[in-house]
Amino acid sequence: MVKHENFKTCDQSGFCKRNRQFADDVSASSSYTSPYAVVPASITFKKGQLDAVVLKAVKEGGEKVPLPLTITFLESGVVRVTLDEEKRAKGQIELRHDSKARKERYNEAGKWALVGGLNPAEGAALAETTDAGYTKVIYGKGGSHQAIIRHAPFSIDFQREGETQVKFNERGFLNVEHWRPKVEKPVEEKKEGEEEAKVEEKEEEKGKDESTWWDETFGGNTDSKPRGPEAVALDISFPGYEHVFGIPEHATRLSLKTTRGGDNAYSEPYRLYNADVFEYEMDSPMTLYGAIPFMQAHRKGSTVGVFWLNAAETWIDVVKTKNTANPLALGLKGHTDTQTHWMSESGLLDVFVFLGPTPQDLTRQYSELTGYTAMPQSFAIAYHQCRWNYVTDEDVKDVDRRFDKFNIPYDVIWLDIEYTHEKKYFTWDPLTFVNPDKMQKQLAKRERKLVAIIDPHIKNTDNYPVIDELKKKGLAVKNKDGDQYEGWCWPGSSMWIDCFNPAAIDWWKGLFKYDKFKGTAPNTFIWNDMNEPSVFNGPETTMPKDNLHHGNWEHRDVHNINGMTFHNATYQAIAERKKGEFRRPFVLTRAFYSGSQRSAAMWTGDNLAEWAHLEASIPMVLNQGISGFPFAGADVGGFFGNPSKELLTRWYQAGIYYPFFRGHAHIDTRRREPYIPGSPYTEIITQALRLRYQLLPAWYTAFHEASTTGAPIIRPNFYIHPEDENGFAVDDQLYIGSTGLLAKPVTKEGADSVSIYIADSHPYYDYFDYTTYSGAGHHTVPAPLDKIPLLMQGGHIVPRRDRPRRSSGLMKYDPFTLVVVLDKDGNASGSLYLDDGETFEYQQGAFIHRRFDFDAKREILTSANLDTSSPSSKTQKYVKSMEKVRVEKIIIVGAPKEWKGKDHVVVMEEGRKESKRRQEATLEYHGAEGKKAAWVVVRNPKVGIGKGWRVDFGDKGVGHEHHGHEH
Amino acid sequence: MGRKHTASIALLLPLLASTSNAASDPPRPRGVGPEFAKFYKNPDTFMCISNPNITVPIANVNDDYCDCPDGSDEPGTAACSYISPLSPPRPSSGKPGAVNETLALPGFYCKNKGHIPSYIPFTNVNDGVCDYELCCDGSDEYEGVGGVKCEDQCAKIGKEWRKQDEARQKSLNAARQRRKDLIAEAARLRKEVEDRIQTLKTQIQGQTLKVESLEKSLVEIERAERGKVVKGAGKGGKITVLSSLAKSRIEELTENVGRLRSERDSVKARVDELEAMLKRFKEEYNPNFNDEGVKRAVHAWEDYAAQDRSGPNEALDRDLDEILSPDSESAIKWEEFETTEESDVEVLYKFEEYLPTPVRDWVDSKLRDLRVALIENGILADPTSDSTTESKAVTDARSQLDSAKRELDNDKSELTRHQEDLDKDYGPDSIFRALKDICVEKDSGEYTYEHCFLSRTTQKPKKGGGHTGMGNFVHITSITVDEELPADGKGLGSGERIALKYENGQHCWNGPNRSTLVVLACAEKDEIWKIVEEEKCVYRMEVGTPAVCGVDVQKVVEGHDEL
């Protein structure tokens, strides 16, 4: 059970309480006017950027607080709105407690999160004519977008094609807590005052409950808050949008529930404050390990979104308003508006607005800003075997041997904290890991890898050079007094590396050199855990907010970015372990932020071996996908507790669809490697694992797509079928990349079937026996324990490698099978991306990228090059190395009846001698049986995977003597 | 269900090139073992081994495409490696049940010239790894995928293997010899038990007779003594009796105080150990687990530790030593009392004499009435009968009888124990009789592990601290194992193995009572090979011992050949 008492509710988090109260007061008052106004004379517009000053009227004495406003219109069609506070920016404030903290609002979140897409749009322009009191900017492709800025009270409407999609400050919740000095109020003074004055005073005080302004205490920890109240908050509305997705990480549904009343609503806002939540609960807006403040709203035909670039503790309220259709207004349907309220404790108000209109536009534009998923090494998308802990090097070798013995493929074995000598990272326990080199060698023999854990807390002890250097160089996070902060974690007393400091990153890189971290090898990779950071004795199991980071930024300002700076540093360290070694690093992180996708994979932390956790993992991983960090997975089997054999089996059958696929278990649990449960479970689990391996070419292609377009690797229904209103909330089934493979993992105990939702009119075929399911709606698909519910949407070509090997590295030169799944018109297409799976040479063209098309009319299957650049020497070298790799089999599912009796196809390949150009290959036709579709197999067409070729199914030249053949 | 020919000479060429060129035998296709050669003799067509109704052109054999549903057309490639119940299901190429879709061949045949021929799984063929363990000639990687070159290492590996095999054989012979010795030893031990039983039986007979005669003599002595009493009170006075009673009582008490003291000491040692454990627990527990139970325990410990508890008073302890010592100054000299001849009992009865006369008269009359009444009602002893005391002679006789009875009982229970022991399972040839309580140790990680045959398993931390019991012997059982035998032969191999079950060891925090399964395999010496914690606090020890060598010797020897 999660310990609620360890984590704050909105009411216990001062700024959240203040802003929620503020929102309630504003909503309750009919006469309220938002006190923010743009000074019209201050507006300038140059090169896609609008600058102005917003004044916040502060009641007493008519004082006005200047807030510099910047609105940047980006080339991509995204708009960035930034609101700062002049006094803080100029340092014209005083800090309490002689704090050394910076005075500005934190303005470096972008430095960590953003990597591109920031070029202002030359085409954006002020509208010629505008109503008085408004400024209008026309931007976007063909000027289809406009931002309408109302001066007083300040608000912005974002329109696409003349229709408002996103509104800022519609409800007047905009709140920038300006700096003010603390006035020590004499408590008893008002006794003599008159009755009238008292009433007034009270009124005044109601709005100004100062109890959370100057310091806050929670769980025995007091936050000194040297800058006083400094929150930023804004309401953002999505008119006409019923569904909002995103803002991971929460154990909740994909389509976010409301938080302030209504059916089945949460009572707390969604919280983003990276934390080590022990035994987290299901169906909750509670914060978890990572934060991506990116939300998208979806309705039929349109997806829009906002990215709230702020690294401080953040809460988000979501409400939905149903507008019932007016029975008199014919043709107008009722619609639902979604309104959100974003609140952050400190920092700038800095928001990006995306107007879509497709989900693909959103993920692309967001990824352009925060970076694309790094192309992983091919082993990283295969199966990972983890446990806290494999206890000795012999244990590791034994597990490795057993996988082979049971013919179960796996690629990576993991070491949790116990491998270290007394929890000192970069050391090995001399008693239990006596010979790590030998262990690594055994693994390397089968192309297998080792991932070892390295956490950010460094043991504060004697005779440990790492802590000595950390202290001497002053690279640790500091406490509010500027001394190196000491807290408690796995090793006991510890200090935390401050990766906001470039010097700390440099030092960190040095620690991973092979001669420094002895016992590691090129096949060793790293797992970064506890980087929220987790501090056992800190408030909410993390660091005090008034701790200081590099540049004297308070921890409060940077908290949600902290984990990312750490795994980024590890990524750089792994990339530079040895001069001349250019291999893609692999780092797993638990804490994350926008941008983490550039250097790490993530997992959903410490889940439980319960069916509910298996079920929740699907929407959680889907949500990661649409939020720009798709290399995600949950611990297969559940971390805490012992899963039943059925649960374990079902979890493997679901886990093969996690982009990051790892089995993991707590130290107190029984062993549960796939060979443990015995017959029939072990066989069924092995089938699932082999299915993942068989489809690795499709997965790798999906990763490539993610790394170039930002598209999710596993995709929810709405992403594939954005027009299908019935499927917007479907989050218990998934598509793999662009393959059309539709999976619905079994997440219920004792189930023997599942109901799969089909969104369109294409035929869908069972992956294993080609049973056909047609027609939009729910279809019951059998799912006894040994059956994985997996369908193939008509219209796709799926690349596979069917030969089972011991690891993915040993499949590198295996031939391909292409499964051509025809749509209702008989067409299909697909793609394949392939590279060495290891180095960065793909960036210099060393890859194969093919597009396959089956044309129903011409009855031909073609392979065309998707790489339009002129081939580099690296390209040629790579293609040559893959020269012998061929397509060994083509399966066509849903084959036309007319092909019955056909016994061969004609194959033509580029580059072959004219005389050998035309070759025949045998075709075998299998007729439809009941619901099972007809299929054909082309036997060994012997075409190169990297070559252009054509398979002609319409050839009538030879083989007619076999007509009427029985099947 | 036939297959069609698209025979092409071009396809045949690589096949011919790849076939074996052994001199005498007709060439067999690559990867075919001699026992399957007969299926590959037809020069035109190939009949799938398990599906003889399906034939394919000979060109399809080893063309790296899987035609036969049983995989038999690809003995030398990995093309049919997917045919396995471990692979994802696929649509059947024929009517369900009409075709046999199980691999017909055991694998890719490596000739391993200079060593032992062997089959390697098809999944390992041309995967870029030299699997020398099974295929020392490197013939599994003939395609050289990814540039891999697997040189023929059979000469070296074979030589090494033969050397090791020789050592193994030698060691095995030695082990067999040792087992013989053990059997002899076990037999001797059994004989000892049997002899002991014989002795005991005789002893019991004698003892029974002795008891009977002692009983008789006691009765006689009692009768004689009663006569004495009737004649008048003997010299053995009441003080003597009292002193003898007091002596035995005090001895009893002394003994008990001594026992209590040693119990106290051992309890104190346990408390110290527990306190040390709790101290470590408090220092090392993980506050992040937020386990209320643990937190409560830690707080309770802190409170407990904060209390000032005085230790045992050493001065008092020394006094106690003094008191308990029979030779000490203050000890009562019992002999002085035991020899007292006069009886003080009468004196006690005449206590009225010490009272003033009027009182005495009153008391006397009252007391007399009371005493008479008591005596008449059998509550008080008749002062003249003297039956409450026993003479030393009777006491001696009785104690002789008692000790004789005790001896008899002891002998009887020993007999039962030995008889039960004879029926007890000591494994084949009762061999473990010779190993019982023999202990072997092994360092592994942070601990030294100890296995005492048929007794217990123990974990001893190298860093110091208390030993942890991993289980006490329960029974002999067996287990099926299937493991690779390392070159030195120190491993379980595969087959049925004798195992010793140890249960109810120390309780595990957050887990069960520790238990250990000790799996035995043949070795020259008794030694622990490996300790694995299979799941939390459930251990498995792999132990070599000559004791099991005779049991399944065939299987153990053949452990090397995996296929």
Automatic annotation (TrEMBL), chain A:
Provide a Gene Ontology MF annotation, just one.
carbohydrate binding
Which Pfam families does the annotation name? DUF5110, Gal_mutarotas_2, Glyco_hydro_31_2nd, Glyco_hydro_31_3rd
| Glycosyl hydrolase family 31 C-terminal domain residues | 710-798
Q: Where is the Glycoside hydrolase family 31 N-terminal domain positioned along the sequence?
A: 68-317
| GO BP, one annotated term | N-glycan processing
Q: What is this protein called?
A: alpha-glucosidase
Top-level taxonomy: Eukaryota, Fungi, Dikarya, Ascomycota, Pezizomycotina
Keyword Endoplasmic reticulum in the entry? The reply is yes
| Composition-biased stretches (Basic and acidic residues) | 199-211
**All copies of domain DUF5110, residue ranges:** 817-862
Give the pathway: Glycan metabolism; N-glycan metabolism
Q: Which family does it belong to?
A: Belongs to the glycosyl hydrolase 31 family.
Name the source's superkingdom.
Eukaryota
UniProtKB/TrEMBL annotation, chain B:
Return the Polar residues bias intervals.
Answer: 384-402
- For whether the record's keyword set contains DNA damage, the answer is no
| Basic and acidic residues bias (residue ranges) | 403-422
Q: Which Pfam families match?
A: PRKCSH-like, PRKCSH_1
Q: Does the keyword NAD apply?
A: no
Name all MRH domain ranges: 437-551
Q: Which PROSITE patterns match?
A: MRH
Signal sequence interval, chain numbering: 1-22
A GO biological process of this protein is: N-glycan processing
Where are the coiled-coil regions?
A: 172-284
Q: Highest taxon of the source?
A: Eukaryota
Keywords per UniProt: Coiled coil, Disulfide bond, Endoplasmic reticulum, Signal
Q: Where is this region: Disordered?
A: 381-422
- One cellular-component annotation, GO: glucosidase II complex
This protein's name: Glucosidase 2 subunit beta
